[in-house]
């Protein structure tokens, strides 16, 4: 067990009284797959944890097979095969995610729309993300709402990005859809263009120009609760908060005392071969990288894991991992570096994380077996 003391925030933020002190423990639990091959190809990106029954729902988007993992017993509990055709089909083009609501209803996000099942598993709705279906702010001609969005735990809101995806700088903002009133709000954001300076471009495909080649871009994150949305990215220590009821939004710029507040972007931005692209991308990944905010429903805190190169060489880097904690008002109340020896076993940052019983679960693919690294904070 290691004790971490929160760094005191700047006095101008007036949050010193809310500083947090905690110790932590880290361990790893493995899931008994009961001789089944669990779907791990997409890093559990198509999964959802439901605290009410302590189950993780892991969906194979190609087959619509749903694996239900009992996280109390750490074992596979059940497999459900959903229909892909007919009146109960849960797939239209490509399934991009699943949400199990508090009431047990299931929402499947698809490339262009949403599919709604009631608690009994019967399809009760299918909605395209268009102006015809959802009234309110109007999507301009050529603009689309990305189906790879997030649905709140209550099942009330769907939040995703929107823009003109036929253009290189296509992202324009956030789309918030009220699934009860069937209305939508469009919130323009300027952060996407600001992230272009971090992009690494690779060689073009055979017979095509460089602009059509591979790229390594920064990630944009959406963290939903039933009251607000946090929008952040992997390159900057800042976030946008959107109140789902009032529609008000504000930008919060954070200040770290332990790691860089922004990716410096000192790597070359253009590669002329696949080998060079891989080399430059390794340099890019060694600069500071911020993970998504993870909401702790029990405490009302937002947590984030970040990492930055702390030593070694370009060929053999040594990374430091950092934990940042915000309170309900998005004031930073704790920031700490994991002690030496507690380096997390990820090639980068964990792909999927969630809170269960006060512990941060981080998915780990351990030789094609499902496992979780658990970070357990103990507060004084």
How would you summarize this macromolecular structure in one to three sentences?
The protein has 380 residues and is mainly beta. It is built from two helices and 30 strands. It is globular.
Our Rg estimate from Cα atoms comes to 21 Å
Task: Calculate the mean pLDDT score and round it.
Answer: 90
In helices, the fraction of residues equals under 10%
How would you sum up the major sheet? 6 strands, mixed
Unreliable sequence segments: 1-17, 206-211
Shape: globular
End-to-end span in angstroms? 13 Å
Q: How large is the share of residues in beta strands?
A: 35-45%
Structural class: mainly beta
- So how many helices? 2
List keywords for this structure.
380 residues; six-stranded mixed beta sheet; five-stranded antiparallel beta sheet; disordered N terminus
Task: Write structural notes for this entry.
There is one protein chain. This protein is mainly beta and 380 residues long. The protein has two helices and 30 strands. It has helices at residues 191-194, 274-285; strands at residues 2-5, 21-30, 47-50, 55-60, 65-70, 75-81, 95-100, 106-110, 113-117, 123-128, 135-136, 144-145, 150-151, 157-163, 171-178, 183-188, 200-201, 215-216, 220-224, 228-233, 238-243, 249-253, 289-290, 294-296, 301-312, 317-326, 332-337, 353-356, 359-365, 370-379. The longest helix has 12 residues, at 274-285. The protein is globular and about 55 Å long. Mean pLDDT is 90; it is low at 1-17 and 206-211.
